Amino acid sequence: MNSSKRSLTLRTPDDCHLHLRDAEMLKRAVNHTASEFGRAVVMPNLKTPVTTVKRARDYRKRIQAAVEDQFSFIPLMTLYLTDNTRPDDITEAATTDWLVGAKLYPAGATTNSSSGVSSIVKLMPILEKMAQTGLILQVHGEVTDPHIDIFDREAVFIEQVLSPIVHELPELKIVLEHITTRQGIEFVKTSSENIAGSLTPQHMLFNRNELFRGGMRPHHYCLPILKRENHRAALASAATSGNPKFFLGTDSAPHAQQAKEAACGCAGCYSAHAAMPMYARLFEHYEALDKLEQFSSVNGAHFYGLDLNPGTITLAKESWQVPDSYSVENGESVVPLFAGEKMDWKVIPDMT
Ligand code: DOR
Ligand code: ZN
After folding, report:
1. Using CB atoms within 10 A as the burial measure, which of 193, 205, 223, 271 is most buried?
2. Which CATH number goes with the domain that contains 182?
3. Segment 153-212, tens digit of pLDDT
4. Which residues are catalytic?
5. CA of 103 relative to ligand 2 center, distance in Å
6. What total number of domains does the chain contain?
7. Is 329 within a domain?
8. What's the pLDDT at 351?
9. CB within 6 Å of ligand 1 — which residues?
10. CA nearest 162: which of 150, 178, 175?
């Protein structure tokens, strides 16, 4: 890595956890991501969830069609697990080289998760098939019991759901997605090499005070919800430590402005417009810019068994202002993280 104070050239990174949606919103979101990343693991929680290989193949084609010619971008897909997923779906998925996993949403945990998994016991044969075929399990790690405090749902999930799965199926490769707690970090660190974790910019740059700084801030509301400062610090320390078990997954999740700024606003932060500048801000703060490439461009690819991306991106230490919103062709708009604020790192387009 070529690192100086003013610019940083990194191997092209991967976003290992991304929401792109469909139709006009997809067009908007995918080109932000493709301007920074070579590949992304695209989450399957569409309104009609991506539950079969056929749906995943069709969605992937729509994504590829939405990428502007100037970019080279490879969408990697994951299947949405339900109570009705069949072992054959897993066998079929494992024969492709573009379906890299299957996603466990506990039913009701988050956006478009109502068809998610309601019984882990019933899911076990599917998880066994995944372990046999090498398909990676991606986990939204929160219990859905409304009696459990929203800030405790990840820690309780790890104890009551994830630990037993890992104990039963030690050979299953699992990504604990968007880790938000020190318990999540500890769990990944102390588990076998089959267990890894992805980390978002918002959970490492903000603690839960950001939900209420000067008033209610719907654009900082995502799930799992932002946590206390000691948790944020644990995530940042893991990401910047160079530990190969942790890698970049933005969880960038666009929602229309009206759906966020509402009496019952949707969960999700949009970060695709400036994901690498946000991570660079964090790594610079921790004096760990030399570890950024490993986190963004190496660890995820290794865990997924992928070659590293060819090519590089350059980040310059240059101030720019994030727009208040981005318009979408259907007339909606998306309010990005850091809307109207200054970013101090900028992605410089590759001129070759
Ligand atoms: O905040 C979130 N938004 N968390 C998720 O798990 C899903 C995502 C979305 O799809 O909007
Ligand atoms: Zn997500």
Report:
1. 271
2. 3.20.20.140
3. 999 999 999 999 999 999 999 999 999 999 999 999 999 999 999 999 999 999 999 999
4. 251
5. 10
6. 1
7. no
8. 60
9. 19, 45, 110-111, 140, 222-223, 253, 267-268
10. 175
